[in-house]
């Protein structure tokens, strides 16, 4: 394949993440041409997908458009797919998987669409090369994404393979862990860039603290992974890939200028978080404590304090949680003056128990649950002194 040919690239993400993904992509020097609920489009080359896959923190997949066409039934689909030069994309020695999403009266089953796609691809390669790739559900080799909406079809080479949220460091997930890409988006929403300290009580398996350390060190999350879909396509440039990984690695810092503190009441959570941080190569950057969130040591330098308490839908009982949320408000007032506080929760009734005024409320989705990232500006002194600023506290 011509890896320098510019095409449409669809970068997918979770619901609510598009604004943060757009900023990240913009910072990497690309112009966002259109955006959807769960993704954005840019124009770029397969060579660019190397950088995008390594650098992006909030994206799920980087998809390179191979073909777009109109189609009204499965036979037309087979013909259109079989007319594409797949022998230039997938070697017969590879393993292939197809992911389909269909919303069309032409077909009532996306599994059938994947089957038809796969048959057309392997038949074409077999005809041109004399042998064919094996295929199945695994996402470790060549992955093709297929969308069929009404009579329009899009076929993409999935240059990521497995989701980019699967960084590879979370060996021990503990209870209700946040997805890594969501944690990165929350930190971006909290304007964390490593130039301030970060405190993460109730850290669970440590996702927020680990993502914060990676951001603060300017360490590209993709450097933690050794396998991406793009490495399996014909035309992959291994020397350019190694050089880019080296260059990105050299750009990351070795030391943090500010402290990152993570704590949890559960010893097992801290054991899991430490192990995960070790796998991510940031265990020496994070101070871990086993303690109630109220006893978390606070650094001198002000910054961000962010908590993701249980919210009753999956874990914890609502009555006990009411007390916990009220105590978080007290903790902010008593110990976090000068910090910006954040609570990420899916239960707004519980959030009211915090008893403080929010300065921002941002919508996110944790799996299918609509959640909020609530921001509290925590000032010392009276409301009057702080000019009635939103979230100002009377201490
Ligand atoms: C929803 S989980 C956090 C998940 C985390 N964001 C992650 O990605 O793994 C909530 C955590 O709060 C902890 N926790 C509950 N009550 C606590 C308390 N009073 N003090 C400190 N931690 C507490 C639990 O042990 C649990 O690990």
Automatic annotation (TrEMBL):
Record protein name field: RNA methyltransferase
Gene Ontology MF annotations: RNA binding; rRNA (guanine-N2-)-methyltransferase activity; rRNA (guanine-N7-)-methyltransferase activity
PANTHER family the record matches: RIBOSOMAL RNA LARGE SUBUNIT METHYLTRANSFERASE K/L, RIBOSOMAL RNA LARGE SUBUNIT METHYLTRANSFERASE K_L
Domain THUMP residues, every copy: 48-159
Keywords for this protein: Methyltransferase, RNA-binding, Transferase
Top-level division of the source organism's lineage: Bacteria
SMART domains found in the cross-reference section: THUMP (SM00981)
A Pfam family reported for this protein in Swiss-Prot or TrEMBL: RlmL_1st
């Amino acid at each position: 394949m011509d890896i320098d040919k510019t095409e449409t690239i669809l970068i997918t993400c979770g619901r609510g993440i598009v604004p943060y993904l757009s900023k990240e992509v913009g910072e990497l020097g690309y112009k966002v041409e259109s955006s959807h609920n769960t993704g954005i489009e840019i124009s770029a080359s397969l060579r660019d997908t190397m950088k995008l896959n390594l650098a992006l923190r909030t994206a799920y997949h980087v998809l390179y458009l191979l073909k777009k066409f109109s189609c009204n039934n499965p036979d037309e689909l087979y013909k259109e797919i079989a007319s594409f030069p797949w022998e230039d994309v997938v070697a017969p020695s590879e393993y292939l998987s197809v992911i389909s999403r269909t919303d069309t009266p032409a077909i009532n089953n996306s599994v059938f669409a994947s089957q038809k796609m796969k048959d057309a691809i392997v038949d074409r390669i077999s005809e041109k090369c004399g042998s064919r790739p094996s295929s199945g559900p695994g996402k470790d080799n060549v992955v093709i994404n297929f969308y069929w909406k009404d009579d329009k079809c899009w076929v993409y080479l999935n240059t990521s393979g497995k989701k980019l949220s699967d960084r590879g460091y979370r060996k021990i997930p503990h209870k209700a862990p946040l997805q890594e890409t969501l944690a990165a988006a929350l930190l971006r929403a909290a304007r964390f860039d490593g130039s301030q300290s970060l405190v993460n009580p109730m850290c669970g398996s440590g996702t927020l603290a680990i993502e914060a350390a990676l951001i603060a060190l300017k360490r590209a999350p993709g450097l933690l992974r050794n396998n991406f879909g793009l490495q399996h396509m014909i035309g992959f440039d291994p020397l350019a890939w190694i050089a880019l990984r080296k260059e990105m690695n050299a750009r990351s810092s070795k030391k943090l200028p500010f402290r990152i503190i993570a704590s949890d009441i559960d010893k097992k959570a801290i054991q899991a978080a430490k192990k995960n941080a070790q796998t991510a190569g940031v265990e020496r950057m994070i101070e871990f404590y086993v303690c109630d969130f109220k006893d978390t040591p606070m650094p001198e330098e002000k910054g961000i304090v962010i908590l993701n308490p249980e919210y009753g839908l999956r874990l914890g009982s609502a009555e006990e949680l009411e007390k916990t949320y009220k105590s978080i408000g007290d903790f902010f007032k008593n110990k976090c003056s000068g910090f910006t506080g954040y609570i990420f929760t899916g239960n707004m009734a519980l959030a009211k128990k915090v008893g403080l005024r929010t300065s921002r409320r941002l919508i996110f989705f944790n799996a299918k649950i609509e959640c909020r990232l609530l921001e509290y500006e925590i000032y010392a002194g009276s409301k009057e002194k702080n000019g009635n600023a939103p979230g100002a506290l009377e201490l």
